[in-house]
Write a structure and sequence with these properties.
alpha/beta; 2 domains; 12 strands; about 35% strand; elongated
Length: about 180
């Protein structure tokens, strides 16, 4: 059995985090498995079960977690592991088609997006290879940072239809999750 603790991502509770979970204890009792959360104050909560896989959910408001890791293994008993703070996070990195392909051939006036009044008139063909190399390195760093934190990452182009790109991404994500199960 998996014990899953859910926290709201948004809502009035998210404004101020004052209460913290400082410990979790699990114990096998004659009547079943006991889960004790050490919390620094009173919190409203609900407890329910979900199927496939069968799990108990303890739903808490926004609180601070002062525990190591996000998943803790507890052995071979009825409760084998528990997770907390499990919000799905994904990064949709959307770049313009021209940023990804750098198709410019003629002398081009590039305008700075971050600096007002920054303009550079240049021969884009002389910049293309170094620009695309730097862009690929940047995308690789972003993708790696996301994957290191177990955050799903998708690079999308403005040339692609958003609904088609999202459908492909979500279908691939679902296949990965099924393969893990």
């Amino acid at each position: 059995m998996l014990v899953l603790l859910l926290l709201p991502l948004f809502g009035p509770e998210a404004a101020a985090v004052e209460i913290a979970v400082t410990g979790i204890r699990l114990g096998e009792q004659d009547y079943g498995t006991r889960v004790v959360l050490d919390i620094t104050g009173d919190v409203d909560h609900s407890i329910f079960t979900l199927p496939d896989p069968y799990r108990v959910v303890i739903d808490l408001p926004e609180i601070e977690w002062r525990l190591p890791g996000k998943t803790l293994s507890v052995g071979n008993g009825l409760v084998q592991q528990f997770r907390y703070g499990q919000h799905d996070v994904l990064v949709l990195h959307i770049l313009d088609h021209d940023e990804l392909e750098f198709p410019f051939a003629d002398r081009t006036l590039f305008e700075g997006m971050e600096q007002i009044n920054l303009e550079i008139l240049t021969d884009p063909q002389s910049l293309r290879n170094s620009y695309l190399t730097a862009l690929r390195a940047f995308i690789s760093r972003i993708r790696s940072a996301c994957l290191d934190q177990r955050i799903d990452y998708a690079l999308l182009s403005t040339a692609d239809s958003l609904d088609v790109a999202l459908t492909k991404f979500l279908a691939a994500r679902m296949r990965r999750q099924r393969a893990k199960a």
